[in-house]
Write a structure and sequence with these properties.
It is a single chain. This protein is mostly helical and about 90 residues long. Helices cover about 85% and strands about 0% of the residues. The protein is built from 4 helices and no strands.
């Protein structure tokens, strides 16, 4: 059985996580019984189950990118304003 990443598991809802853990347990049991034909079915169910959490992870990444972009824009604006203020001070002298 293939586990999903810790980041994805952290974004599963309680119900999704309970189902994920149950499916992993079933998959491990089937592996010990060498029932690999059924393991593939269980793995597919796990892959479907974690899709919403993967989307939540992607959205967090996109939000982080937007936040970074906004921060860099504010920083550039502040640097421009600071440079203008320094020029004004030099002109007054």
């Amino acid at each position: 059985m293939r586990h999903c990443s810790v980041q994805v598991r952290g974004l599963l809802t309680r119900d999704e996580l309970d189902r994920y853990n149950a499916l992993i347990e079933v998959g491990h049991f089937l592996e010990t019984e060498k029932r690999y034909d059924h393991v593939a079915v269980v793995q597919k169910e796990i892959d479907i189950l974690i899709l919403p959490a993967i989307e939540r992870l992607k959205e967090k990444s996109r939000q982080r990118d937007r936040d970074t972009e906004a921060y860099l824009a504010r920083k550039a604006q502040m640097e421009t304003e600071l440079a203008a203020a320094l020029r004004d001070d030099e002109d007054e002298e």
